[in-house]
Design goal:
By secondary structure, the protein is an all-alpha fold. The chain is built from 4 helices and no strands. Helices cover 78% and strands 0% of the residues. α1 crosses α2, α2 crosses α3 and α3 runs antiparallel to α4. It is elongated. It comes from Oryzias latipes.
Length: 148
């Protein structure tokens, strides 16, 4: 848990970026206003987390999930956030699925490459064995000729 209440605040850079994205170009926000928005956002996040945690506890779980957060938004009477949150969640899931597919594809390619290298080294070993066998046969033939 946080040692000081300030540790629970969101990073200033994040708050500044969100504010800039929300306001039209040319609008300035004072340092005090940014701080107030940061504190309000932090309180909102803590409250939403607490409400979502209550839903998880009722379900006898220790892990919060997206359904808990959506239920918390509804309980907190922030229904207007539900659709944007669902849309953002869907985008996130698609992104994760895409990353998983790319990761799986890379893993398969790596395995295929390792298999190819393994087969190549196996073929090289077989080739070396054949070469050694041929050389031994030539040596034996040479020794037989010397004996005759």
């Amino acid at each position: 848990m946080a040692e000081k209440p300030e540790d629970l605040n969101l990073p200033n850079a994040v708050i500044t970026r969100i504010i800039k994205e929300a306001l039209p170009d040319g609008v300035n926000v004072s340092k005090e206003a940014r701080r107030a928005i940061s504190q309000a956002a932090s309180v909102f996040v803590l409250y939403a987390t607490s409400c979502a945690n209550n839903f998880a506890l009722k379900a006898k779980r220790k892990t919060l999930n997206a359904a808990d957060v959506l239920a918390a938004m509804e309980e907190m009477e922030f229904e207007r956030f539900l659709e944007p949150l669902r849309a953002a969640l869907e985008v996130y899931k698609k992104g994760q699925k895409g990353k998983k597919e790319v990761s799986e594809q890379k893993r398969k390619e790596k395995e295929k490459k390792a298999d190819c290298e393994h087969e190549k080294s196996k073929e090289d070993e077989e080739g070396e064995d054949e070469e050694e066998q041929r050389m031994e046969e030539e040596t034996e033939e040479g020794e037989e000729e010397v004996e005759n």
